[in-house]
Amino acid sequence: MTPFQILLLVGAYFIVLLVISYFTGRNDSNADFFKAGRQSPWYLVAFGMVGASLSGVTFISVPGWVEASQFSYLQVVLGYLVGYFVVAFLLLPIYYRLNLTSIYEYLKGRFGPTSHKTGAFFFFISRVLGAAFRLFLVAIVLQQFVFDEFGIPFEVTVVISILLIWIYTNKGGIKTIVWTDTLQTTFMILAVVLSIVFINRELDWTFGEFLASEELKEYNRFLFFDDFLARNHFIKSFVGGMFVTICMTGLDQDMMQKNLTCKNLKEAQKNMVSFSFVLVGVTFLFMLLGVLLFIYAHRNGIGIPLMDGSPKTDLLFPEIALNSGLGLTLSITFMLGLIAAAYSSADSALTSLTTSFCIDFLNMENKNEEEKKRTRKRTHIWMSFALVVVIIIFKYILSSNVIDSLLTVAGYTYGPLLGLFAFGIFTKHTIKDKYVWVVALTSVVIISILGSLKPEYLGGYQLGYELLPLNGLLTFTGLWLIRN
User: Fold this and answer.
1) Are 206 and 46 spatial neighbours (Cβ–Cβ below 8 Å)?
2) What is the 3-state secondary structure (H, E, C) of 386-399?
3) HSE (CB half, 13 Å, CA atoms) of 365?
4) How far apart are CA 26 and CA 352, in angstroms?
5) Predicted TM-score of the model (pTM)
6) Contacts for 45 with CB less than 8 Å, ≥ 6 apart
7) DSSP class of residue 311?
8) Which pLDDT tens digit goes with each residue over 49-96?
């Protein structure tokens, strides 16, 4: 597939998104932008959330991680499943009972304005970094396989990507995203299924023969109990995954804003439970695809693509889909899946960042409707600019697998949110609100120091995703010390 053909495909896809945006954003109201009028069908939200949760990270990085980690990521995913039930039956009832627009308003009512701002600040940092991780991965693929051919620098690629997202989310906000996410999820799942079919066919296998093959057995170990000191031990991965979901879904304005567009709590819970099971199944398909990619690459002498002179397994899927001669259908399917992955994560991130900043920092409730709309639109532009800057910075500092980096950073930034919400829900104490930011910042500093320690300083113990619950526990303890 030539770079020009890819550009045509991106253009056609963007036109479809604009059409959806036109019909969903005609009101251009704050009510639709922030909550979609609370009229979204639960099954539509559930299906769309699959694409938003998977994003470009799962689409490219999970298959590329299989050779190094086998199926150990499934241990984290099983933890996700439990975490989604906690979100559905513990957190969602609170958000619906209080009729929240930004979930961090809960902290204001429970503890005070400093806690409110602290929680919103850590979401802001978390979501900017998380969205930038996801978009960075897609941007480097577009850069390597499209824009390098035209001599367009990476920085321009990023600006174009964010500009397109800003255009179609500018009016409809979350109402537009509920519908575009459905389209994007469809393309992502179609891409992984067809990729598995085409590569199996090229390897002269049926799907059943692939599952029974000796080559699959070299990759398919997913339970690791033998060394508790290792980072991928089951308990550490499972518990870490559970808390990652509680924080990155249940305490995250981006994901909860979609749930809060459902008509009522019962429908939101049906959405969350059904979505959780579908997500586990789809993630497993991505891991099977990863195995097929490495088998196909080894059989055909395809090396790991280089980026800045270093092997980058995240680029193996695009390399095989676009340059290995498997046909135009697979190339088109891959690009549609990739574009869908890019937009499904970034559009909702941009909307949720705009929502949180307007509600949590700019006190929009004190303004009239016209002032609210102007404030929202200006904030939308500034959030777009922030994403551009962070993605460009990542190009020069990011070296490890993207999904591993994403989950590691979550351990630092979501921990204070976990501690704040846990203290608010599970205790009846009030706290000295003005000191909350000190507690949260101290917890992050301690976790950062722990995370940087080499295993030999910890008796060989490798810290992993358990940094997140540990961070939450430190924050919880600090809040206990400043309780009234």
Assistant:
1) no
2) HHHHHHHHHHHHCC
3) 8
4) 20
5) 0.77
6) 178, 258, 259, 261, 262, 268, 271, 275
7) E
8) 776 666 666 677 777 778 777 888 888 889 999 999 999 999 999 999
